[in-house]
Amino acid sequence: MPQRHFSLGFLLLCACSSPWPDPPPSQTVDTAPKTAAPLNVCINEFSANPTASTDWIELHNPTSSGLSLAGYFLTDDADDPYKYPLDTSLFVDAGGYLLLTADGRADLGPAHLPFSLNADGETLGLFRFDGAGEQLTFGVVASDYTWSRQPDCCQDLPDCLSQTLDGTPESTNGGRR
Ligand SMILES: [Ca+2]
Ligand SMILES: [Ca+2]
């Protein structure tokens, strides 16, 4: 029966040749503010438009245990959560604040970042090697104002982000109301 032979050959051909490669891993990153605390450290405050200093980012560890930042990354690109690896020597004390200088001069030391912040707003993220992390998007910030989370590491973003004149680098942002 010629028709049966033809059908069998067709099936074998389909089984033995698979011209389509596996689909590439998705590059999509969830840009929605996270409502849970996936990390024991947060981007607590940042200064994107200072007139008398360089940009900076304050990280805060609200837990009772110190935290090494080895395996952590900062990013200003929603499509690339692992853009800027933090120096493996960085550490945030229990309940502590760590100030990172966003001056584009990583050659100056471990607390200097290889990028600066856009005063017109952008997306900023902090991620761990395993993909856990948070991402927040901020808008235009006035000269010498910072964006700060109040209270520290608050999770109801972006509602709990406030602009504060001069900010509170390396100390608590205080509570709100
Ligand atoms: Ca800036
Ligand atoms: Ca602060």
Secondary structure blueprint with pairings:
Layout: H1 2-16, E1 42-47, E2 55-60, E3 67-68, E4 72-75, E5 84-85, E6 91-92, E7 97-102, E8 122-128, E9 133-138, E10 145-149, E11 161-165
Antiparallel strand pairs: 1-2, 1-10, 2-7, 3-6, 4-5, 4-8, 8-9, 10-11
Bound molecules: calcium ion (CA) (2 copies).
Plain-language structure description:
With 177 residues, this protein is mainly beta. It is built from one helix and eleven strands. The longest helix has 15 residues, at 2-16. The chain is globular. The model is unreliable at 5-37 (pLDDT under 50). Bound molecules: calcium ion (2 copies).
Task: Report how far the terminal alpha carbons are from each other.
Answer: 85 Å
Q: In terms of per-residue confidence, which ranges show pLDDT below 50 for 5 or more consecutive residues?
A: 5-37
SSE-based structural type: mainly beta
Tally of extended strands? 11
Q: Could you describe the largest sheet, including whether it forms a barrel?
A: 5 strands, antiparallel
Can you give keywords for this protein?
single chain; 177 residues; mainly beta; Immunoglobulin-like; five-stranded antiparallel β-sheet; four-stranded antiparallel β-sheet; 11 strands; 8% helix; 29% strand; binds calcium ion
